[in-house]
Amino acid sequence: GGMRAILAAVQAHVIAYLLFTPDTERTHLDRLCRVGRWEQGQALATALAETLWAAGGGGRAVVCLGTAPVTRTAREGYRASSFTETIRLFEFSEKAAAQGFISDHIDCFKGEGSHGVILFLYSLLFSRTLER
């Protein structure tokens, strides 16, 4: 439950990418044991993009990133979280563009204290749309 379900789904995509992406120099299992940091980032970016693309019905993906804190007064009946107010949405109509964008901003999802899982959850919700 909770965040573990999201992490498990992403991990499954990462492992599939690392196992089944063609690499003629090594066997798939050997490759899995010798993955460098750059390739780890690419695997994560691919996994996130594929999941968001699927959530968007194969026609769109929305990526949420945090920006600099904004000072705003909360409206009545609304409690500011100081995190949600910093989220910016980036919408893509091509899977490759979404994957490239995520790859360029991968540290936003994997860095210490980056709120990467929450950003990914918001991205899933906006990619799928609240109506669906």
Could you characterize the architecture of this molecule?
The protein is mainly α and 132 residues long. The protein folds into two domains: 34 residues, no CATH class; 91 residues, no CATH class. 53% of the residues lie in helices and 9% in strands. The chain is built from six helices and two strands. Strands 1-2 form a two-stranded antiparallel ribbon. It starts with a helix and ends with a helix. 21% of the residues are buried.
Query: Which radius of gyration do the C-alpha atoms yield?
Result: 16 Å
Distance between the termini: 21 Å
Largest sheet: 2 strands, antiparallel
- The structural class is mainly alpha
In short:
The chain has six helices and two strands; from the N terminus they run αααββααα.
Task: Fill in the keyword field for this structure.
132 residues, mainly alpha, two-stranded antiparallel sheet, 6 helices, globular, MINDY-3/4_CD
List the helices and strands and how they pair.
Blueprint: H1 3-20, H2 28-33, H3 37-55, E1 61-66, E2 87-92, H4 95-104, H5 107-110, H6 116-128
Antiparallel strand pairs: 1-2
Helix pairs in contact: 1-3, 3-4, 3-6
Domain Deubiquitinating enzyme MINDY-3/4 conserved: 1-132
Function: Hydrolase that can remove 'Lys-48'-linked conjugated ubiquitin from proteins.
Keywords: Hydrolase, Protease, Thiol protease, Ubl conjugation pathway
